[in-house]
Structure prediction request, 196 residues.
Amino acid sequence: MIRALSTVFVALLGLVLLAAAPVQAAGESGLAQRLAGADYVLMMRHADAPGVGDPAGYTLADCGSQRNLGERGRRQAVAIGDWLRAQGVTDAAVYTSPWCRCKDTAQGLALGNYQVEPALGSFFETPAQAAAQTRELSQFLARTLPGKGARALILVTHHVNIREFVAENVGTGDMVLVRMNRRGEYISHTRHRAPG
Prediction:
């Protein structure tokens, strides 16, 4: 009898604690609010594209010559767009690397039209360009952030670009919320793993 009462008491206590625990709705993460400001940008690595690098002889003008999103990557891009909308991100200026796997990721997000930005292009094969291209990215951000209004600024790029900018390796589809200064330079970041 005492054992039965203690089991009921523990179960009721568990329900009370569960009811009292704070519940964070998807839109309450603060992501959309931060991105509405002029000092945050969301950088994301393109969705899953099987392989490493690009085939020999590829060109940016021919998607068929590049490493592209696989079926998993196409589904992942859609899931990321859904996740962003669940966070309250519905109005975004989306910029992407010239590589097709990034453009296809940007399209899969379904947050509106995207624009190609050369400063987001990969320097995987030319690592000596990392510092110069990162400076170009900072200059692009310094020009773009003040005029974006309350729209979120989302950049779809590559692993090497994000690693150079925030000093962290990220997986496919992972995002980093980056706080910037007025010169478009890195201050801090928070990583958001790709949903699913």
Summary: Residues 29-192 form a domain with the Rossmann fold fold (CATH 3.40.50.1240). Residues 1-28 have pLDDT under 50 and may be disordered.
